[in-house]
Amino acid sequence: MALNKKPYKGTRDFFPADKRVQDYIFNKMRSSAEAFAFEGYEGPMLEEVALYKAKSGEELINEQIYSFEDRGNRFVAIRPEMTPTVARMVAQVHREIPKPIKWYSIPNLMRYEKPQRGRLREHWQFNCDIFGEVGRSSEIEILQLITHLFNSFGANSEHFEILINDREIVNIVFNDLMKIDEETSYKLYKIVDKAKKVKPEGLEKMISELNLSSEAEAIFKKYLSLQNFEELFSFLEEKGYGEKSNGFKELFQITSEIGLKDYLVYDPTIVRGLDYYTGIVFEVFDKNPENRRALCGGGAYANLLQIFNENPVPGVGFGLGDVTLTDFLITHKLMPDLSKNEVDLYLTFQSDRAVAKNFELANKVREMGFKSLNSLETIKFKKVFSNADKFGARFVSILGDKELDEGFFQVKNLATKESFDIKFSELDKLRELLNA
Amino acid sequence: MALNKKPYKGTRDFFPADKRVQDYIFNKMRSSAEAFAFEGYEGPMLEEVALYKAKSGEELINEQIYSFEDRGNRFVAIRPEMTPTVARMVAQVHREIPKPIKWYSIPNLMRYEKPQRGRLREHWQFNCDIFGEVGRSSEIEILQLITHLFNSFGANSEHFEILINDREIVNIVFNDLMKIDEETSYKLYKIVDKAKKVKPEGLEKMISELNLSSEAEAIFKKYLSLQNFEELFSFLEEKGYGEKSNGFKELFQITSEIGLKDYLVYDPTIVRGLDYYTGIVFEVFDKNPENRRALCGGGAYANLLQIFNENPVPGVGFGLGDVTLTDFLITHKLMPDLSKNEVDLYLTFQSDRAVAKNFELANKVREMGFKSLNSLETIKFKKVFSNADKFGARFVSILGDKELDEGFFQVKNLATKESFDIKFSELDKLRELLNA
Coiled-coil segments, which residues (chains A, B) (predicted)? Predict the structure, then answer.
């Protein structure tokens, strides 16, 4: 029986045109991170399951990770996310290296998902984190970096927005204003997470099942109705918690001053579940109403290193997956046409006697910094140009017996149709042609 | 109990300095492949085990792969090599796309190895393949590419050599000259593979256990003693098989003409085991006598697509692992110093009032194409320069209350110690400074 030619469920084959798209995206990610002086890192594809157990909820461990026992009876998993790995790595070195620590990575990750649009089992994720105590500034820089990255793809505030909240404020609302216990708070987080995904009746039902006091319920509903930063700040002011929200107010002011105002939208329903966040939490959303989905999520945390018995190192970071980002760029027509390879010179020859010379010329052209495609076999003259087009060549060269004997080759510019005879001893002329 | 901070056995954490080394190596690989007009591809981290079973020996399946059953009862494995994946991908598209198909990839792979110098459980491997019928030329181009890559690292014929053989010639020796049966041939391949790793007595013993005819044994020993192309060709000429070795002779002649003569060494013990090769087989070796190891291996094959019931598509390719290559570059002092990050401008401020301005300036500098590091918090003047050094900055800027009020900032060149006042309205002057 013939083998299946398709990739494993929920994973992708990246043929060259797909790989050029991936490279385009990854290069923008790297350039943005490096423009902000983030340094790249990488970790293992496998980690011990204990690491994920310590950091994440049981749901992830039980249902979503690819875990198994290795041949040495270690219980291991393919990395479903990068945060535990980066925390483990920072735990090793944070005492010795200068802070803030600004690191990025673009690992391949696997989760046991039911494949659907925007969600696959294997994806790549751009991860950026700033570790070390620098107050609100590191949160602002993370937001600035995300905006920089999206701008570098040609996306602006017509295309995306950053929905943002602050876990400190959520805590003020739940603990100080509503005065609810921890168990109810836990349930409220889950409800808030779902608030925009369910119908009003469904939300109403979930709230009523909590049996909150009427005051607490009113506060909660008022909270959920907040539409923007101004409403949030006056709500807190009214309740006597104006001063406690000064940090978030400062973030709002500075981001406005540095040109992020059009991107940032206060959203009370962004809490990022029961995750480890303690400061800001945010999600980047596609503004296309038919494609409303989170492209990126992140936030600030007080101490990811706790599980390693290390002193607290606060941080802020985000993860941005390649699948939803690719959809986003295509939907908004922001993806350049990368369907064809780009080659500077396609070197062909018409006689078997010319094979060695063609190899030699191809390499000389490479040494000048150009991409050269050697035809490797003799190509009939009438096929030369259709081949050149298929392979994405800008120029083509032709080398026959006559040329070989007289020491030159013909070079044609495929755009202008101009043709030039270039002597083997005068390749600098070729350089000028190819550079034009 | 605190969690283990170390990576899983046989895998590596790449801290920024390590990641810069990895990026340096990967960028050279990409540049070389693209200079030869190879196109990038990527495949899934997981494949079904059936794919590896069909392609590889049982040893790999039973002892070396990370395999497990997924939650849908599919028997899957983390990719231990890229060849089965690329064969699967080529099988999907080879009918529609122009040939030759020239593809490269740098996947992360896992094998269940006993970790040791040069051998880890997780590594990255540069894979290049040319698919499609182009005779000896594709073999020659693969050898040219490998040489180009090593040259681009600064390595030359003092540092490495390419040991090469041809499976067609091995077949002539075993089948036509020695006239042995398939089972003995199978054993001979294993012996040849080990010939240079065992002592002469050990080799002698293995050969005698085969009970070859004395003629066959003499031919085999003569074969193993061949030192170079010339000896090989006269040996075959003598035995009446001169013409049958014309293809390999042609490869030797053309590679000599195009400057590869100093790199290529004929070696009868290179056969690449029982693998699927049918044409040339080769291994790149470190010439340092204390570090003799294969850096790269590959060869030509008649039909990788057989397992998919596809028509034959011949090809030639190689795999080059990052672990041994890194050792090679370090041993030969060919690795540049990448211990520090490189930052164009470290932007610091002395007053909380300047925080927004510093964010704004940092971004403007990024828009000019420079890497800028925002200090994020106020930095005491005396710490500015030691920080700048730690973070690898070329220039540093200082912004205090006075500067803020008067609309400029100070920029210092850390190499020349020169200092400049740059007005916020004249950032083009900063561009000139940073470009210098």
Answer: none
Global ipTM: 0.95
Q: How far is B168 from chain A (nearest CA, A)?
A: 21
Summarised one tens digit per residue, pLDDT across range A32-49 is 999 999 999 999 999 999
DSSP labels for A97-159?
S-SSEEEEE--EEE-----BTTB-SEEEEEEEEEES--THHHHHHHHHHHHHHHHHTT--TTT
Is the distance from CB of B130 to CB of B315 less than 8 angstroms? yes
The string of DSSP codes covering B200-212 is: HHHHHHHHHTT--
Helix (H) or strand (E) segment spanning residue A360: helix A355-367
Helix-strand-coil percent breakdown of chain A, rounded to 5?
Answer: 45, 20, 35
Segment A145-169 mean pLDDT? 97
What DSSP string describes B4-63?
P-SPSTT---B-HHHHHHHHHHHHHHHHHHHHTT-EE-B--SEEEHHHHHHHS-HHIIII
Distance of CA A366 to the CA centre of its chain: 33
Give CA angle at B136 (B131, B140), nearest 5°.
Answer: 85
Reported as a single tens digit per residue, the pLDDT across B295-335 is: 999 999 998 888 899 999 999 999 999 999 999 999 999 99
Contacts of A33 in chain B (CB under 8 A): none
Report the C-alpha gap between A281 and B158 in whole angstroms.
56
CB contact under 8 A, A40 and B20: yes
| Closest by CA position to A81, among listed A392, A385, A304, A360 | A304
Interchain proximity B122–A148, CB inside 8 Å: no
For residue range A10-35, list pLDDT tens digits in order.
999 999 999 999 999 999 999 999 99
In angstroms, the CA A357 to CA B84 distance is: 35
Predicted confidence band of residue A58 (pLDDT cuts 50, 70, 90): low
Q: Are A129 and A103 in contact (CB under 8 A)?
A: yes
| CA nearest to B43, candidates B70, B75, B97, B83 | B83
DSSP string, B328-378: HHHHTT-S----S--EEEEEEESSGGGHHHHHHHHHHHHHTT--EEE--S-
- Rounded to whole angstroms, the Cα distance separating B181 from A54 reads 59
Rounded to whole angstroms, the Cα distance separating B213 from B206 reads: 14
- Phi/psi for B236 (5° steps) reads -70, -40
Q: What residues of chain B score a pLDDT lower than 70?
A: 1, 57-61, 274
**Bridge partners, residue A372, by sequence:** A345
> What is residue A287's predicted lDDT score, i.e. its pLDDT?
95
Interface contact flag, A23 B40, Cβ < 8 Å: yes
**How far, rounded to the nearest angstrom, does the alpha carbon of residue A84 sit from its chain's CA centroid?**
17
- Tell me the average pLDDT across A100-116: 93
Contact B39 A341 (CB under 8 A): yes
Q: Are A7 and B43 in contact (CB under 8 A)?
A: yes
Domains and CATH numbers, chain B: 13-155+287-339 (3.30.930.10), 160-285 (3.30.930.10), 343-435 (3.40.50.800)
- Give the neighbor-by-neighbor strand order of the sheet with B408-413: B372-374, B343-349, B393-399, B408-413, B419-423
Identify the closest residue of chain A to B353 by CA–CA distance: A254
Query: CA angle, corner A190, sides to A184 and A194, nearest 5?
Result: 140
Helix axes B214-224, B200-208, angle to 10 degrees: 150
